[in-house]
Amino acid sequence: MAEECTPTYIGRVRERFQGKWVCGLCGEAVKERLAREPALTVGGAVDAHAALCERFNSTVRLNPKLSLANSMRDIARKSCLHRSGSATATTPSACGGDKIGRAASCAVPYV
């Protein structure tokens, strides 16, 4: 670890991520984000990942049971949409009436 964190190495990491010190795992997440969204800048990808980490630390870590429930709801919604073949679950006929439609309108926005 001491060999890896030399001033030269730190300088290269900061140069790659616009002056921010980013760990290896976060660096990989930023690279994947850039691959998915080529129009995004490195700074934008770093900021988006930092916001995601902040949101995770302020919600999931504080209440993991609620996070699990939200994840299960999202999985059920995606499964329902996949089976029905529709792009949205706001129609009353999609997956068991209007219950999914109302839940979709209250969903937490994701990045």
From TrEMBL:
> According to the lineage, what is the superkingdom?
Eukaryota
What is the species of this protein?
Answer: Eleusine coracana subsp. coracana
Query: Which InterPro entries does the record cross-reference, listed alphabetically?
Result: DUF1677_pln
Provide an example Pfam family for this protein: DUF1677
PANTHER family the UniProt entry points to? OS01G0745000 PROTEIN (PTHR33108:SF14)
Please report the name of this protein according to its UniProt entry.
Uncharacterized protein
